[in-house]
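User: I'm preparing a small set of examples for a lab meeting where we compare how different chains pack in three dimensions. I only have the primary sequence for this one, and I'd like the structure in token form so I can line it up with the others. Please keep the answer compact; I'll paste it straight into my notes.
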Amino acid sequence: MSLLYLGLALFIGTHLFTAYARGLRGALIANLGEMPYKGLYAALSLVGFVMLVMGWKRTPTDVVYTPPEWGLPAAYLLMGAAFILFAASYLPAGRIKSWAGHPMSLGTILGSFAHLLVNGDSRSLTVFGAFFAWGVLDRVSYRARGDRGASGTSLLGDASAIVGGLISTWVFVRVLHLYVSGIALI
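Assistant: Understood. Below is the structure token output for the 186-residue chain.
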């Protein structure tokens, strides 16, 4: 379980650092340069994620609560919306990105909540509760800085986010979920 906690701490800590330690972040960028900083950020995030996944697979679970019967269909819908938001965060600003403000953090909140609707075990509560909290804290940091995110009306951005998000959802449900979590959805 310690690998799970270390992975969570490294992954989420790296992301919270960029959100809440803006002065230190700026100093690191000034000292290292923007691209080396981004490389270090990406490397730490990736190492944290790999540790989290490895820790997930090794951590035993205990039942904490019984998920609701309607949780599974709701989770599929929420995950579809989350993947659309994840895609929108990397595409030209359309109405989806403008509405969400920062679609990656909103997608993280929705995806975490979706997982908590279908998993009532201690391992899931730890991981997805932490991701939910991080998504909320990330949105709080944006609001505190007055950063409302990108705005735009790109129909291409919206269409690409919807198509890309739905394709990503399908691929993750059909293939990747098994490899990442060790749990087959279909």
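A couple of notes for your slides: The chain is about 80% helix and 0% strand. Helices lie at 2-20, 22-32, 34-58, 71-88, 95-100, 103-118, 122-145, 155-181.

User: Perfect, thanks.
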